[in-house]
Amino acid sequence: MTPAASVPFLDLITPHGELEDELIGVFRTALHTASFIGGPMVDEFEREFAAFCGARSCIGIGSGTDALRFALLGAGVQPGDTVLTVPNTFIATTEAISHVGALPDFIDVDERTATMDPDKLRAYLETQCASSPGITQPVSRRTGRPVTTIVPVHLYGQMADMDSILELAERFHLTVVEDACQAHGAEYFSRKHGTWRKAGTMGRAAAFSFYPGKNLGACGEAGAITTDDEALARYCRMMRDHGQSRKYVHEFVGANGRLDAIQAGILTVKLRHLARWNEERRERAHEYDALLRASDSGIIPPHVPSWSRHVYHLYVVRVAERDRVQRELAAAGIGTGIHYPVPLHLGPAYPGVPVGPGDFPVAERAASEILSLPMFPGLTRAQQRRVIDCLAAAVAVNTRVPQRSPAPAEAAA
Ligand SMILES: *Cc1c(COP(=O)(O)O)cnc(C)c1O
After folding, report:
1. Probe residue for ligand 1, chosen from 181, 259, 313 as the CB with the greatest number of ligand atoms within 8 Å
2. 236 vs 134, residue with greater confidence
3. Quick check: 336 and 329 in contact, CB under 8 A?
4. How many angstroms separate the CA atoms of 175 and 192, rounded?
5. In 10 A of CB 301, how many CB atoms?
6. How many C-beta atoms lie closer than 10 Å to residue 389's C-beta?
7. Cα 165 to Cα 176: distance, rounded to the nearest angstrom
8. What does the pLDDT look like over 237-260, one tens digit per residue?
9. Are 389 and 328 in contact (CB under 8 A)?
10. Percent of the chain with pLDDT over 70
11. 208 CA from centroid of ligand 1 (Å)
12. Ligand 1 site, residue 97, Cβ cutoff 6 A
């Protein structure tokens, strides 16, 4: 028997091969004009990405982590503030919070979408905070400090339940900054506005990452902030450039956090394909959904509420005995990932957070069951069939299937 073909988790070579001449053209333009920092390629990308999202401004930044850090500073986060996010995100989310001197605290996630659960956010604000004279925001009993900001994470390519989060933010005088680093082009049906809204347009500001593996990826490090807030945009433009309003006029202590011009040019070329790539990811996801249904294997596919248009940065299923299943898939030549194996409140980087095992049961249980399957534009149906065949075979020997607590009512009501 010939060994069956392996399936990579991600293919970053084919899409760049298809655009090779255009991408090399970007490098030539930079060489011929010596525009390496700032300049027309950065301006063009910022204009086009703002238009793609439907945001007034886009500010190119050197990474998604710095984009979030600068957006938090621009939104007025102060040292000692408590900033709420979720435990099941990439550590960059809380690094940005920590590096502005704020204290991250966590809200558990919805069982089905793994994004911030608005009911738990409400419970936190109503029962774990106190009002304090002279402070407009609620003061967290857990941190002893005022809660000023919420950072919902649009995880795996799907937006958090933003209407519900924004409603609570308004009621408690909080600012919302979106972590849209996995959600380029994802959409949310806002009942409040009666329209679909793209990631990056619902909070006071949003951070995007163009790390190579993201739905829109650079050929190196890159990120961006989107916002409708002109003052915030102006602040972030200065922040990324040593606090400069003009050359050598430093209004405050800024940073070197600019988007590289060559990366901006590359991103402009690739942005023209993003809508099609996202559509292809959706088709691949629907194929996986159908294959999983047909396999009758008890594997839980991603849940997409009626208010969500998912862009499947990752296709994440839930499966019992995940580590063994993942090893068996690896042995069969199938690449998978775990996003993320350790909830942030349990990791060594946050020894001081006043929470521990058991405090966020939904995120903690998910961490042991989630498995990200191969997902990229260009993935073939034959490859997908092989992934699900191998997955179903590995799961067939499971003695238990993942238990899901009763599904929370879909927030469409
Ligand atoms: C990728 C990512 C980031 C950080 O982006 P970088 O560009 O790698 O700095 C932040 N948050 C989330 C959720 C991410 O997936």
Report:
1. 181
2. 236
3. yes
4. 18
5. 18
6. 15
7. 8
8. 999 999 999 999 999 999 999 999
9. no
10. 95
11. 7
12. no
Domains of the chain: 13-269 (3.40.640.10), 275-395 (3.90.1150.10)
Mean pLDDT of 197-204: 98
DSSP notation for 222-250: -EEEEES-HHHHHHHHHHTBTTEEETTEE
The span from the CA of 265 to the CA of 269, in Å, is 6
Q: Which residues contact 402 (CB under 8 A, 6 or more apart)?
A: 298, 300, 318, 319, 320, 369
What tokens does 390 get? 């191998």
The DSSP bridge partners found for residue 135 are 132
User: What contacts 188, CB < 8 A, 6 or more positions away?
Assistant: 159, 161, 162, 163, 196, 197, 198, 199, 202, 307, 308, 309
User: Hey, what amino acid is at 224?
Assistant: A
Q: Pinpoint the alpha helices (H) of 128-222.
A: 162-171
Q: Is 85 in the pocket of ligand 1 (CB under 6 A)?
A: no
d(CA 105, CA 82): 7
Site of tokens 């979030």: 68
Q: Is the CB of 211 under 6 A from ligand 1?
A: yes
Answer whether 199 contacts ligand 1 (Cβ < 6 A). no
CB-CB contact of 26 with 265 (8 Å): yes
How far is the centre of ligand 1, averaged over its atoms, from the C-alpha of 316 (Å)? 17
| Cα 90 to middle of ligand 1, angstroms | 7
Give the pairing type, strands 249-250 and 370-373: unpaired
Distances (CA, A) of 289 to 293, 299, 385: 6, 10, 11
Nearest CA to ligand 1 atom 5: 64
Q: Which atom of ligand 1 is nearest to the CA of 66?
A: 9
